[in-house]
Design brief:
Layout (H helix, E strand, L loop, with lengths): L9 H11 L3 E2 L1 E6 L5 E6 L2 E6 L2 E5 L11 H8 L2 E6 L5 H6 L10 H4 L4 E2 L8 E2 L4 E13 L6 E13 L12 H4 L2 E3 L5 E3 L16
Antiparallel strand pairs: 1-11, 2-3, 2-6, 4-5, 5-10, 6-9, 7-8, 9-10, 11-12
The structure holds flavin mononucleotide.
Flavin mononucleotide (FMN) binds next to strand 3 and helix 2.
Length: 207
């Protein structure tokens, strides 16, 4: 099969893209609107891009009708967010917070989650999640104007909270304890429990 993007339906392109670029980590993002109401939603167009300063980016795309999602609207007013770790034991709640509730209604409450204050940013953290990255928006980059068009939200991480229970004896995050989930195409997800290790290759002697 060949998909010529210029001649294809946008939904077909989207389906191919999320099938190929997989698995994708999940940003579980809490934001605040101008009236202080909390919004929580998952985004798998997400990754980290550097560590000095630590940079993450995710993309709340435009809805099928071309409108902006609440997360994006909130970030345009209060440019701060928290990335909560999307872990296996909270999979149902992560999914529940993707429900399109009326603007201003909290998906956290809807999913039965509790919130606690953040330290450096105004949006709160999901108490049940073991890791939180408190972030400030550096840039929002819209790419396209139609349905499923990207809005790259580039954020700088200011503070990282990690529960001791997900650390190994060296103080590093143990993936077997954190158990993040990731998204593939369609309704598929994967766990991070089928692990293998490889040593990095040594620099070849140029002699
Ligand atoms: C696991 C998962 C990943 C998702 N990833 C994205 C994404 O990367 N971009 C996006 O716009 N929507 C994504 N969605 C859909 C949004 O979560 C959904 O549209 C949500 O209602 C947006 O919330 P908001 O309007 O409160 O911002 C995803 C949904 C799920 C369940």
């Amino acid at each position: 099969m060949i998909i010529d993007v210029s001649a294809s339906d946008v939904v077909a392109v989207y389906r191919a893209l999320v099938g190929v670029v997989a698995p994708r980590p999940i940003a579980w993002v809490s934001t605040l609107d101008g009236e202080g109401r909390v919004n929580l939603a998952p985004f798998s167009f997400f990754n980290a891009f550097g560590a000095n300063p630590p940079v993450v980016a995710f993309s709340p795309t435009l809805r099928r009708d071309g409108s902006k999602k609440d997360t994006l609207l909130n970030l345009e007013v209060i440019p701060e967010f928290v990335l909560n770790a999307a872990v296996e034991e909270l999979a149902d709640q992560v999914n529940a917070t993707a429900t399109e509730l009326p603007r201003g209604q909290s998906e956290a409450e809807y999913a039965g989650l509790t919130l606690k204050r953040s330290t450096r940013v105004r949006p709160p953290r999901v108490s049940e999640s073991p890791v939180h990255l408190e972030c400030r928006v550096r840039q929002i980059m819209p790419i396209g104007t139609g349905p499923i068009a990207a809005n790259l939200v580039i954020g700088e991480v200011l503070l990282i909270h990690i529960e001791d229970g997900v650390l190994d004896s060296q103080g590093q995050i143990d993936p077997r304890k954190l158990r993040t989930i990731a998204r593939l195409g369609g309704n598929y997800y994967c766990r991070s429990t089928d692990l293998f290790e490889m040593e990095r290759p040594q620099k070849k002697d140029e002699g």
